[in-house]
Amino acid sequence: MVLLEAVQALAVDEPAGLLPARQQMALSLGWHIVLACFGVAFPALILVAHWRGVYRDDPDALRLARRWAKVSAVLFAIGAVSGTVLSFEMGLLWPGLMGPYGDVLGLPFAFEGLSFFVEAIFLGIYLYGWGRIPPRRHLLMIVPMAVAGVVGTYCVISVNAWMNMPVGFRVVDGEVVDVEPWAVLLNPGAVLQFAHMWIAAYMVVGFSVAGVYAAGMLRGRRDRHHRLGFTLPFVFATVAALVQPFVGHVLGLRIADTQPAKLAAFELAETTESPSPLRLGGVLVDGEVKGAIDIPGLGSVIARNSFTEPVQGLDTIPVADQPPVNITHLAFQTMVGIGTLLFVAVLVFWLARWRGRDLLQRRWFLRGAVVAGPLAVVALEAGWIATEVGRQPWVVYGFLRTPDAAGDNPDLWILLAATAVLYSALTVGAVVVLRSMARRWRAGDEDLPSPYGPEQGADGGVGTVER
Amino acid sequence: MSLPVLVAAALFVGVVAYALFGGADFGSGFFDLTAGDARRGAELRTLVDHSIGPVWEANHVWLIYVLVMWWTGFPESFASATSTLILPFLLALLGIVLRGAAFAFRKFAPTLGQARLYGAVFAGSSLLTPFFLGTVAGGIASGRVPAEGRGDLWTSWVNPTSLFGGVIAVGTCVFLAGVFLTADADRGGHGSLARGLQRRTLAVGIATGVVVFAALVPITRDAPTLAAGLEGRAAPLVVVSALAGLATLVLLVRWRLGAARVAAVVAVGAVISGWGVGQYPWLLVDEVTLHDAAGAEATLVGLLVVVGLAAVIVLPPLVYLFRLTQTAAWSGALASRHGDQQG
C-alpha cells in the first residue's frame, strides 16, 4: 500500500483512472495474448496432424489431432471471453481514445470480429463433427479456422501498428477530421509487425505443445504417440524460431526513423554515439548507465544495419517524451535473449539429428524442451511490453498522450483487484481441467464423460456427449 | 435511409440476433440451474450441453459485433455509455466470463464434484448477463446516459425502466431457451423430459408476458420518450409480440413444437425491435440522435462493407452449423454411445 500511495502521489497531475487503467489493460491483455496465440497457431497444428492422420492413414496423428482439438476447445472458450473483456475495456478504460478516435481505428476491429465469427463457427462444426461428418470434409472444416486466425491477428496488429505510426486522419483545431479507415487497416507498419506477432504465436504454441510431450518422455513414455506429439509442434517451433530474428531485425530497423525514443530506450543509449555500442543488461540511474556490458559498434550494426550510423541518444529527446527507459530496455533484451537462445537450441537439435544423434534420448535436452514453452511465453510478453511501454507516453504516437486517453475514475483499482482474482481463478480452473484431461487420456479414457457423471449411462437414456 | 441510420440498423440486427441466439443460450442456464441434483438433473444437463455446446461461441460473437459496430460507428456515445453504465457492464461481463469458462470446464471436469461446481457457476452466471444487459438497455432508453462524459453511476441503471428491462431480458431468454430445449428433448426421444420442460416453459412464458405488459405503466412515467415511441411507431411490433407470445403458448400446449419455436423467435424479436423502433431516432434517448452521434462518413461506409462481407462469408457457414446441429446424425449421438468410433 505504501508503494501504491507513493505512486499515486507522484502522479498527482494525472487522471485518477490512468494508473489502474494501465494495470488493468496490462493484466487482461497480457493474459489474453497467450490464449490468442493458441487461437492463431493451434488450428494450423491440428490441421497438419489431422491431415497426416487422414491422408497417410496414421492413427497416432489422428489421435493427436483429436486430443488437441479438445484442448483447443477449452483454450478457445476462455480466449473468447477474455477477448470480450478487452472489447468492453476499450471504452471503460480509455474514453479519451475511443471517443475521438473510435471511428478511425474501428474498421480493423470490425474485420477482426468477422474473422472471429468465422473461427467460432468452424470451431463448433469441427469439434462436433468428429464421427459425424465424412472424414475428408471434416478435415476441410479446420482450414477456415486457421485462415481466420491469421486474418484476425493481422487486423488487431494493424491497430497496434497504427498506434505506433498513426495514419488516416488529420487533427484540425483539436478535432479529428479526414478519417480514412482503410488507411488504418492497410497502414505501412502493419505487415512487419503482424509477421513478428504471427511467428511469435507459432513459437509459443509449438514450443509449449512440444514441451508437454517432452515432459512425458522424461517420465519414460517413449511411444510413437509421444515422439510424434513432440516432433510435429517442434517443426513448427523450429521454423518460427529460425525466421523470427530476421523479421525482428527488419522490423527494428524502421524504429530509428519512426520512434527514436523507443529505439534509444531499447538500446539504452543515453547519448548519441557513432558508432553505437550494443549494450547488454544494465539500467539507467539518474541519467547514467550502470552495470551494462558494451560491445563496441555492434549497436549500430543491429539497430541501423550500418557500421557508422548512430542510435539517437535519450539526451536529444525531451524528458516528457521519453518512455520508461529501464522497463523498455530490459523487456526488449529479455525478448531478444530468449529468442537467440531458442534459435540456437533448435539449430543444435537438427544439426545433431542430421549427424545421426537423437537428442530426445538426452535428459538435459528434454528438460530444456520442457522449459522452452514457458520461455517462449516470457519472450512474447517481454516483446509486447517492450513495444507498448516503449511507445509511452503516447497512446496514439505524436497525437494523443496516454493520460489524456484515460478516464477520471479512481474506483478502477477495485476492478483491477477483482480482475486479478477472477483471472487467477480462471487460470487455476484451466490448468486443473487440462491436467485431468491428460491424466484420463493416459488412463485410456479417450471418451470423456458428459457433465454429470457416469451414472446417467446406466439409465439407458443419455449417452456420452463429447466435444 | 441515411448512412448513420443504415449502420444503426445493421448494428441493431446484431442486437436482435444476440438477444435471440445468445438469449437462448443464456436462458438454458436457468433450466440447468433448476434441474435438481446430479442424478436427477443429468438428463437435462446433458441436453443443455448438447444443445448449446456447438453454437454458444458463435452466438456469443454477436455481442462483439454489436460492440465493434457501436464504438466504430458512434464512438463518443460508446465512451459515454460505457463509462456511465460501467457497473452493469462489468457485472454483465463477469457473467460472460464465468459462464463461458465454466461451461468449457464442466465438460472436461475431473470429478463429479468439480463438474457440479462449474455447472453451478455456468448456470448462475447465465442469469447475470441478460439481467445487467437489460438494465443497460433501460438506462439508455430512459435517457440517463449523457451524450458525452459520465452520467450518474448508480441511478443510470437502478431505476424502474432498467430494472424492468433486466427482468424482461432474463424472462425472454429463459422462455426462448425453454421452447428450444423442449423441442430438442422431444426430437432426441426424451419424452418425459420434454413434458417437464414444456410445463416450466409455459409458466415462464406467462410470467414474462405479464411482466412485459405490466412494465408499460412504470415505463410511461419513467421513460416518456420511449413510451411515446412504443405507443406510436412501435405499436404494431408490440401487438405482433403479444400475439406471437400467445401463439407460442398455444402451440406449446398443442405440442406443435417446431411452430412454437418460430413463434417464440417472432415474439422475442418483436419485443427487442419494438425497443429499437420505439427510441428511434435517438441513439442515447433525449441526449443524442443517430445522426449526431455518427462517426466519420468513410468509416460508416467501411462498416457497411464489412456487413456485406459478413452476409456472404459468415451467414452460409452459420446456417450450415445450425443445420448440422438439427440433423439426426448429431442428435443421434445423444441417444447412443458410439460417437467416438468413427472419424
From TrEMBL, chain A:
Transmembrane segments: 29-51, 71-94, 106-127, 139-163, 195-216, 228-247, 330-352, 364-386, 412-434
Compartments it resides in: Cell membrane
One of the protein's GO biological processes: aerobic electron transport chain
Its membrane topology: Multi-pass membrane protein
GO MF terms, alphabetically ordered: electron transfer activity; heme binding; metal ion binding; oxidoreductase activity, acting on diphenols and related substances as donors, oxygen as acceptor
GO cellular component terms given for this protein: cytochrome complex; plasma membrane
UniProt main location, coarse: membrane
Compositionally biased spans, kind Gly residues: 458-467
Protein name as annotated: Cytochrome d ubiquinol oxidase subunit I
TrEMBL record, chain B:
Membrane spanning stretches: 85-105, 117-141, 161-181, 202-221, 233-253, 260-278, 298-322
Pfam families: Cyt_bd_oxida_II
Membrane topology: Multi-pass membrane protein
InterPro entries: Cyt-d_oxidase_su2
Keyword Cytoplasm on entry: no
Keywords associated with the record: Cell membrane, Membrane, Transmembrane, Transmembrane helix
Subcellular localization(s) per the UniProt record: Cell membrane
Entry GO CC: cytochrome complex; plasma membrane
Molecular function GO labels: electron transfer activity; oxidoreductase activity, acting on diphenols and related substances as donors, oxygen as acceptor
GO biological process terms held by the UniProt record: aerobic electron transport chain
Family designation: Belongs to the cytochrome ubiquinol oxidase subunit 2 family.
Chief localisation class: membrane
PANTHER family assigned: CYTOCHROME BD2 SUBUNIT II
Protein name from the UniProt record: Cytochrome d ubiquinol oxidase subunit II
